[in-house]
Design brief:
It is built from eleven helices and six strands. It has about 290 residues and is α/β, with parallel strands linked by helices.
């Protein structure tokens, strides 16, 4: 299955309207393909630099050296190619589409010497590592994502992703995102934030002066339309689950993926494969 996926991805990358010509022996596309092959197989980059680890249908392909990969993966053109490919796999949804925001912990061992990893709230317990913050449309299109240490505030990270939205529409989240500033930022994009009520909360805004958008959001959460939005918000949990369920999906961070820039690159590769699998599935359903 991995062999067919790799070949399909290669031809898809070739079809993109991206500049591939340069003076280097290895075009940017080859660098991206080599890295994504390692990501799909859950192997370090240097594993994909060895010719014997490539499928027979790529007998013509000479993989770059480990040092070349280390140098070229940091170049703006290679990074731009990966970003554009990810955008192409996640087209902008129609106006009025609901959006969901949440985070997925990516933990490392407690004794890890990773200087960028931090201790924070993981899946129901304290852990150490990072978190994937994602803003997903109800269509399954990934609109924005960020990797931050596990102790980063989810509402503050969401505040940096809200600018990609355009209303009118709704943004559904859990009670952790009940923050006045986030309500106002969403309202500035003509999007109404609706958060699930916290346990023990009355769902009322309180006696202090509140943001009108927060007051409206809290009222909506108590109404049938708001309860429906919050019920459908569970779709982001299914998306996170699907992201890790396939072979080569996003699971616990391997030992060689440490430091924030490497975690970001690794997760981006997993998101690319996830989007590509979804595209192939949608094409098969449409056929």
């Amino acid at each position: 299955m991995e062999r067919q996926l790799l070949e399909a991805l290669y031809h898809w990358l070739l079809s993109l309207d991206l500049r591939r010509k340069n003076r280097s022996r290895f075009p940017d596309l080859w660098i991206v393909l080599t890295y994504l092959w390692a990501v799909l197989c859950d192997r370090p980059t240097h594993w994909a630099c060895q010719r014997e680890n490539w499928p027979v249908n790529f007998a013509w392909f000479t993989p770059p050296s480990d040092s070349t990969m280390s140098r070229r993966l940091k170049t703006p053109s290679v990074q731009a190619l990966q970003r554009q490919a990810l955008r192409r796999l996640n087209p902008e949804p129609p106006p009025g589409t609901e959006h969901w925001v949440d985070g997925k912990p990516l933990t490392v061992g407690g004794s890890s010497k990773d200087r960028d990893a931090r201790a924070g709230r993981g899946a129901g317990m304290m852990a150490k590592g990072y978190k994937l913050h994602a803003l997903w449309a109800a269509t399954g299109a990934l609109r924005a994502w960020m990797i931050e240490p596990l102790n980063a505030s989810e509402p503050k990270v969401a505040l940096r992703m809200v600018p990609v939205l355009s209303g009118p529409g709704y943004l559904a989240a859990d009670h952790l995102f009940d923050w006045k500033t986030l309500y106002d930022a969403a309202d500035a994009k003509k999007v109404q934030l609706v958060t699930s009520p916290d346990r023990g909360s009355t769902g009322k805004p309180g006696r202090r002066k509140q943001s009108p958008s927060r007051v409206k959001g809290l009222k909506l959460a108590q109404m049938p339309i708001g309860r429906g939005l919050l019920q459908r918000r569970k779709g982001i949990e299914r998306l996170f689950g699907q992201l890790g369920n396939n072979a080569g999906g996003l699971g616990p961070l391997p030992n060689w993926v440490r430091r924030k820039h490497r975690v970001t690159r690794w997760v981006q590769g997993k998101l690319l494969w996830f989007g590509f699998r979804r595209q192939i599935k949608n094409q098969e359903l449409a056929a």
